[in-house]
Design a protein that fits this description.
It is built from 20 helices and 16 strands. By secondary structure, it is of the alpha+beta class. The chain has four domains: about 180 residues, no CATH class; about 150 residues, no CATH class; about 90 residues, no CATH class; about 130 residues, no CATH class. The radius of gyration is 30 Å and the shape is globular.
Amino acid sequence: MNKKLVEIVHSAKTVIQKYPLVLLMSFVMTFIVCYMIETENVKKDNFYLIKLLLSSSLGISLFFGIKMLSERIGKEIILSVAGLILLAIYYFVLPDNEKLFTDRYVFVVFPMYVLSHLFVAFIPFVGKSYREKSFWEYNKNLFINFILTGIFTQVLVMGVLLAILAVEKLFAFHFDEKIYPETGLSMAIFGSTFIFLLFNAKGLSSLEKDRQYPVILKFFTQFVLIPLLLIYLVILYFYSGKILLAWQLPRGWVTYLVMAFSIVGILALLLVYPLKEIKAKSWVVIFSKVFYYSLLPLLILLFTAIFTRVLQYGFTEARYYVLLLAIWLATLTLYFIFYKKASIKFIPVSLFCFGIFALMFPFLNAFSVSVKSQKEALMSLLNSEKLIENGKINFDKKISDSTATNILDKFEYLTERNEKPFLETLVPKNIQQKKEFKEGYFWNSSDYFTQINYAHDNNYQANMLTLRSSEELKDIKGYDKALEINSLYRQNYDFDKMNIRIINEGENSEDGKIIIEINNSSTDISTQINTLFSTYGKRKGTVDVEDLSIKFELEKYSCKLIFGSITKDFKTKKIDLNYGTNWLLIKEK
């Protein structure tokens, strides 16, 4: 027993000494997650925590890769400093507040994670020539260690959480409920990192050492993964034949299926790489030789589907990355077909280079190309609808709802990419003064275009009226408590020793009751809510209202319900809260 404890302590000490920066990044990430759970405080004024969280999570794989490289070439201090500088740049590239953290940053954050893992996959083998088998063994061992880490971590998390629950129930302890997410996530983040590093405690020399091919991996790849790939290959070929016979453009969904098949196929080839030299596994050899040839017709299908979407709607970052992956797959296919001395190292290295190109290459990166494309698409749409008059958009001209929505979607996209100055050159001053335009909200066509031809009777704009408060809650003067609510449909809140229920008894009926209940005392507020809408008759669209609230009395409480935004569908008779903050103010009598 003592010997085992000594071994565990020694292994832990080795990991701490060998991977201090990796553990530091994991600890910072864990601390921030627990802090945010504990304080329930993720707001605009401390968005730096989110930035630190993203930076430290990236640093885990980055510094592991740096450690592998330093074991090969030395210079660990210089490489570590370079890694810290890179993380600092990444931190400052991210925006300073939540409002600026728009969709575009998904296409920065996620690719950076992919690049950091690709960096780990090939970095110890750059520069000098190394045995192909060593490269394969290194990545195979990392892959197996990753899978084992996932299994060990899951068992550890479940075991510790069940132990806490057992203590709480058996000994009548009353832990703070936050102990469960904090403990679980700590184990999932820092615990999994430590376990993974324990598996890799001996470093690069152990990871690249030749070992016997794992029996489980051999079975999984030969008898599960490759047969599944063959099934999908048959499906895709039949679909290609259907397209040729019907002479129609492929569905956009097929893009993801072809890409998934290609990437999983490449993974399967990598997993069976040593087996292709064994004659007894001839069918694996055949799969290895045939796979890339089988991709050629599918690549034609893939490019046809991608360009169909791009030519119709223009580039976005998502379409740019899909096209880039398609070009990478085509490059990979041609490389392995025509280059006799093809190396599997080319796979992660080439994808890494494509990713760097997409993020950083001037004028041709994902963001520059997408913004330029959407600007051109917007101008083409405006000109085709003849909406430009004297250099400005004529918002009084009657257009279809789909056209208005399309235009405003591009407005929203360009606003999130800091292209508002470009839009201001197209928009008249009176539209620029609108609250919606200033704050970048473009979801409602009737806020901008005064005459809309609704193409379908069930179009939500044609049947709905949205009342939106023009003021925010600043204080609760005259009331004791304020509860934020998000729906009028069967909500239940345990709030400050009160049980508050919202019940809608007639969701599809105009006279359906909407009941507010506090500690078994209740009232119907549907009449008051309908009165808010009756003021505007049959008007549709969105109306800004100064005072958007109702008051009501319960047995023990005086209440006021303040709506941020509330919508009524005149076709279905449904009423519910919309975007915005809605408050129930309560005063005990």
